[in-house]
What we know:
Number of domains: 1
Oligomer: single chain
Low-confidence stretches: 1-26
Helix content: 10-25%
Radius of gyration: 16 Å
Number of helices: 1
Strand content: 35-45%
Largest sheet: 5 strands, mixed
CATH class: Mainly Beta
Number of strands: 9
Mean pLDDT: 79
Shape: elongated
CATH architecture: Sandwich
Amino acid sequence: xxxxxxxxxxALLVACGHDxxxxxxxxxxxxxxxxxxxxxxxxCPVETDPPQPGCEPQPITVDFVVVGAxxxxxxxxxxxxxxxxxxxxxxxxxxTVRGAANAGPPTVTEMPVTxxxxxxxxxxLQVDTGIR
Length: 132
């Protein structure tokens, strides 16, 4: 089972389309990175707690960038609406994850994240649909 999970993880990382020329030998779980998913809300004009059926936040496909403290892009990716999570190889450090193009609804809320050595940090980006 563990071997299958590691093979799936490696396949997902290859599918991310890394073009940095590095070998993928040190990718998670041996390296560090981000597991990124995104939820879009609101789905209905009036939000309630708990949400009414059909008004729950929904997984969404969104392009995102990972930016270092110096403002330089270190990685980018696209979440998947059905699968939900995409893995991105990122060195240990402190970053901001934001939408690749926040030109209007839907908009991605920026998220700060610190990635320790040899750890994959899971984050869920919050996406505002603009529904009011």
